[in-house]
Amino acid sequence: RRGRAPTSLSSSLDAFGQVRLDWQTGVGAAAFRLYRSTGPISVLAGLAPRTAASPFLDSPDADGTYHYVVTALDAAGNESLLSNSTSILYDKAAPRIQISGVSDAAYYRSSIFPAFSASDANIDPQSVRALLDGAPFVSGSTVSAEGIHTLSVTAADLEDHASTASIRFTLDRIAPTFTVTGVVEGQTLLSSTVIHINVVELNPGASSFLLVNHTLGSTVAYRPGEAILRNGFYTLLAESSDRAGNAAQAGLSFRLDSAPVAPPGLAARLEGGSARLSWQKPEPEVVSYRVYR
Length: 293
Fold this sequence. Notes:
Largest sheet: 5 strands, mixed
Radius of gyration: 38 Å
Helix content: under 10%
Number of helices: 0
Mean pLDDT: 93
Number of strands: 25
Low-confidence stretches: none
Order of helices and strands: EEEEEEEEEEEEEEEEEEEEEEEEE
Strand order of the largest sheet: 9-14-13-11-12
Structural class: mainly beta
């Protein structure tokens, strides 16, 4: 069964600019829940309760008119009906700063146009200012310079409540590039080789490398620094992207023509009084063999 609702709920501003809420507790109440909204309260759906005791101090994070109600809980956790409602105009919060057109810690590959504004019940329009990398910045202006940037916005109201917001972002128009050592385009190598690939990029993202052996008809993922042992005509393909979304692809072709590997599977059997030898062809381009006894 619902207990009695708290009575005589009232609101006021204390000497420190906080909302003070007082109510009569009644008999049998074990605890209280406070509800706040920016509109009149008739039902509690969608409102988050806060455990409270009279007197209760509240400091909203934005100016506006706030409405409050209180309920009582008995020892079994049953919640009472709503108290009377009280409302108050609160104008002691610092301005709320909004920054659009750019996100904190984001990367961009083209010019951007950051915009900012501040809202408050008694905002001082002259106080709303911004600095981009330490220089005055006008809302909506173009940012096109490569590099890391910091945008800081400040605002105050007529009672000198001030706030600051800062974001940091990066403008990167340049796609990754590659430096390759161990082989050059069109080269014929006479022994096994190791290829090293360096991705040149200030804000690296993902990279992948493929090694295509056209002679063997194989394509495998290649990890730079791995030895390439099998003969054949190769194409090395590299792809990379950075955090801003710039992407690059590159490829080079070369041939490996070293001494073939030993034929595997050598076997001998007696046939007609002679030894018959057999083995597997080690590579497609092998055209003759030497047999030693």
